[in-house]
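Work Package 3 (structural annotation) set out to generate three-dimensional models for the target panel prioritized at the project kickoff. During this period the team completed the workflow that converts sequence records into discrete structure tokens, so that structures can be stored uniformly alongside our sequence database. As a representative example, we reproduce one entry of 297 residues exactly as it appears in the project archive.
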Amino acid sequence: MRILVISSFVSTIPEEIRYSFVFDEIERLARRGLKIFVIRSKKDERWFTYSNRIYFYNMKENKIFLLNAFKDSIVSARYYPHQFLMKNYFQLLRSYAYASFALKMTRNVKLNIVHAHFAYPEGFVGTLVKRALKNPLVITLHGYDILTEPDVGYGIRLRKSYDILVKEILNKSDAIIVASKAVYKETCGLVKDTGKVYLIPNAVDVKKFNPDVNLKIIRQRYGAEDKFIVFTVRHHEPVYGIVYLIMAAKLVVNYRKDILFIIGGDGSLKKYHEQLARKLDIKNNVIFTGRIPRVEL
């Protein structure tokens, strides 16, 4: 079986954390004997392989691609009448260029399935590829592309143009995979055929993450040989609520001092969170590690 995976920023190596959930999936599919063709929009090397069963192709924009994209967008207007509601037309052109590149790179490959990670732009690109190749389209939703939280500006569907387009994309897909009940409920409210929505929770590699992992090196590094450790790793952004963990840490430290909160990750609120820990007088009980390499995670 040959699968075309559309994922703009998935890494090409297992050590990279960003979009590692996509890499892990395609690597395990390859282990089962499937061939995976990954189309990225990152401007890296043109193409290369991983484990002889995963082929990465990286789009490089040029005038010819953008010109063809303009023509394609006009021709496809009757299929996607709401696409021109988008204020950023150049971004729309890039989606068409992305689809054209995917078709060009796989024109000699007999594909079985098109699998797009995220509803937009990947899902939109997937619908264009599906229309050209007549392959079934699977879309995996991950949260930001479907859920909204107005208080922190979270979710692309907060913008009406994206909201309308996402609904079109989901209804044109053949199957939709979601990882949480919240995303499942939201998705079922947007599609006519709820039978094509599948709830498949994210898995954990228990060989890497288990209670028997030796923490001696980590405890020595942070001077926590005799302390109870609470660990979290998240982007320091409003939607993840790290501020609530820090405020909770203050309450816990009031009851016991032999506890250490280790908070991994980076982001726009990292300095604010560090200041908050100092303000609450728990700086000796909270460590901010910054970004953690995946091999250490």
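The chain has a mean pLDDT of 86.
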